[in-house]
Structures are given as C-alpha cells and as structure tokens.
Amino acid sequence: MLLYLIPKSRVNFNLENMKHLLLLLFFSATVFSQKTTETFVSTKLGESREITIGLPASYEKNPNKQYPILILLDGDYLFDPFFGALNYGAYWDDLPETIIVGISQNKNDERTDDSTYDDLNGVPSKKGASFFEFIGGELLPYIEKKYHVAPFRIIAGHDITAGYLNFYLYKENPVFNAYISLSPELAPEMEVRIPEKLAKLKQPVFYYQSSGEGDLKDVKEGIKTLDTNIKQVVNPMLNYKYEEFKGASHYSSVLYSIPNALYQFFDCYKPISMAEYTEKIAVLQNGYVKYLTDKYDGIEKTLGFKVPIRSTDFKAIEAAILKNKAYQELDDLSQIARKNYPKSILADYELALMYEKLGDTKKAAKAYQKAAQLNEIGDLTKDLMLEKFDEMQSLTPKKK
C-alpha cells in the first residue's frame, strides 16, 4: 500500500463536508435498525474474519422482497458512510434498500495481505488468492442463503482494496454487477486488462472510479490512464463513470464519491422526477402508460429485481394523460393499477376519472362509489371518492 502524507486523523473537512458526514451518520444511526457483527469462520482463509451486516429496516416486514447486496472491503471504516448514504437515498425512495456486508481488514495489516498479487503476472497470489476465493466461494453463498437477496451484487473498496476488487472483472462471467473503485492502487497491467475485459462484457456491468486532487501522483497517473483506456471501449453493456474531486484529499474524496456512485448505478430506479415528466412524458403524443410499464420493466431488466410501480408515478402518468386529453389511456392505467394495488382505491379512481372526462357521469359516479369502499392510497381518500360520487350524481340527468 502506498503511504499518504496526511493521516486519517488529520483530514481537513470543510463545513459542507462535515454537514454531509453528520447527515449520513444520522441516517446510519436512526433509519437502519438491524446492524449486527459476527465472526465468520473461513476454510479458504484458514482463520476467522469479522463481518458487519446491515439489513434494511423493512427487512423483517417484507419476507418476499429481494434486496441488492453490497460487499464492502475495508468495511471497518467504509461501512458507516455507505450505510448512511444508502439509507438517505432509500428514505426518499431514490435508492433501493440494500443489504450491506462489511469485511473487517484492520488487524495486523490484513488489508495489505488480503490484496496480495504476483508482481510478474498481476493476479492474486498467496493470501490474496485465498481472500479472492473467500468472497466468491464462501461469503457470498453464505449471505445469499441466509438472506433474501436480489441478483444484483456491488463491491467497493479504497486504494489498495479498490485496485484488488478489479480482479473479479478478470473472470469470464464477473461475480459482481457493479464496482466502486475509490482512489485505486492498480496492480500491474490493470490499465490494459480491465478495458479488455470490459470490451468483452456480455452482461450489464456498472463501473465507477474516483480520485481526489490530494492523491499521490503515481496513483492518479494510473487511474487516468485506465480512465482514458476505458473511455475507448464501445460496449452497450458497460455503464462507466470517473470523477476527480478538486480540493479533496485521499480520504475526504470518499465522501464525495459514495453517493455519486450509488446514484449512477441506480439511476433507473428513481421515481419519475419533474424533469423526467416535463422533458420525456408530457411531450409524448400518446403511449403514456407504455412509458410507465417500460420504465419498470427496464428496472427489472437492469437491476435484476422487480419494483412495484409507485403510486406517485401513476399520478405523474395520469397528469400527462389529462394534460394531453388522452382520456382513453386512463382505462389502461386502471388495469395496471389493479395489478399493482388490487385492494386500493387507485384502479377504480382512474376508471372513474376516465368516465368523468368522457362525460359519462353515471358510470363515473358508480366507479367513484366503488372506489370509496377500498383502501386509501396517497392522497386518494374515501372522503374524496364520496365527494366525487356526490358531484357526479348531481350532474347525472334524473329519470322522469
């Protein structure tokens, strides 16, 4: 491992960094309720290793829900920053709830031994080879057997462990779907081998690497060479991003990098934003409901797990339909709502709204009345449905 002149205890954070750190730690302490540390006995390593597991607060309440998994090298100091960032994003539903597994590497220079590679052929050797097998052959199977996880795996590390995690890309079928490489110290030939492997990908891979202005010159040169080579790769399976943070040290750059990497990986997961609505949905001539189903099919295809369509996204599509007077599409929206929220007001409300806009107040009143008997969702309340029922009743011609 290369040595840095500024020790971790003397890293200078500006006020904004400190605010971000305190916010992340606040979410670490309050939102995630299940954080446990256990001793893992490894036959591959021939020793025990401490691991810390963070489960989402909703884990016990959702036995059928699958969660992405994040394996953290340098888990002893990377766990809390990732823990807080993921919980902050999940609180706003911008990031999916994720199972975090941090591997402790702070005893007797474990992180250096774990990252050992052969200087000649540039692949894991000695303890590094055993550690490689420990993660892929023992730890991942253990976590995936014990917890209900989605088939989306992320791995992250810092400096020497960030360089080491790239070895998983050398496999023909990479074990991980996403890689977070923070100020990596690269093994021999990695600047060439990684782009070669990325060019041959047959499955989607997300790759993020970063550096700070305060990183050592030799480290930054390797990172920038790798960045240049990756940017020449033409492969639709690759989602790549590199950032260098001005004014950031080797350690403070980690706090800038973590949320950026996570939001890169889970960009498709986010609910419909005002910008997405304005620029992509409201301008369509038709196909609003198809846009919605395609969005969620894309999430499942990209991330490997199914996400229920958010009620707020139904409302966004409804708004676009009303804006463009494509009222018949409310029927399609109703059918999708019935599949996703069969016991809620939503499906019958959308149907009632269609009848109302088409001028059939009798059918609208009947649909609003039915909706009032179902479960409330978002701002759709039973009182609102009854008000709409009365309104439609008053507009319906009386029989003579």
Automatic annotation (TrEMBL):
The keyword Iron does not apply. InterPro entries: AB_hydrolase_fold, Esterase-like, Mycobacterial_A85_antigen, TPR-like_helical_dom_sf, TPR_rpt. Gene3D superfamilies: alpha/beta hydrolase (3.40.50.1820), Tetratricopeptide repeat domain (1.25.40.10). This is Uncharacterized protein. Keywords: TPR repeat. It comes from Flavobacterium fluvii. It holds the Pfam family Esterase. TPR repeats lie at residues 345-378.
